[in-house]
Amino acid sequence: MPNIGPAELLVILVIALLVFGPKKLPELGKSLGSGIREFRRSTQGLKEELEGSLRETPPAAGPAPVQPAPVQTVVAQAVVPPVAPPAEAAPRPASDVLPPRP
């Protein structure tokens, strides 16, 4: 973000003076200042409330120790799929069989 120097501030002030006029400009500055002040107060209040709630929270106890499950022995039987006899070839349709050529 570019830095704003004294020359830029002077140009902004002149433009604001031309747009709002000399009577309205002090009122705008006052309302802008009070708005910024109120914003700071509310953010400070939220910050203090958050820090207070963090201090009041007791430290969480560590996770309960995990008990291992009882060990069970399982005997597996070998599974052999039954062997199917080879399928017979299906007869070919008559339209696939060509008559012999003379």
UniProtKB/TrEMBL annotation:
TM regions (residue ranges): 6-22
Gene Ontology terms: cellular component: TAT protein transport complex
Coiled coil: none
Subcellular location: Cell membrane
Major localisation: membrane
Swiss-Prot/TrEMBL GO biological process terms: protein transport by the Tat complex
Domain of life the protein comes from: Bacteria
Pfam families with a match to the protein in the record: TatA_B_E (PF02416)
Keywords linked to the UniProt accession: Cell membrane, Membrane, Protein transport, Translocation, Transmembrane, Transmembrane helix, Transport
Function, in words: Part of the twin-arginine translocation (Tat) system that transports large folded proteins containing a characteristic twin-arginine motif in their signal peptide across membranes. TatA could form the protein-conducting channel of the Tat system.
HAMAP family for this protein: TatA_E
UniProt cross-references to PANTHER family, sorted A to Z: SEC-INDEPENDENT PROTEIN TRANSLOCASE PROTEIN TATA
Protein name: Sec-independent protein translocase protein TatA
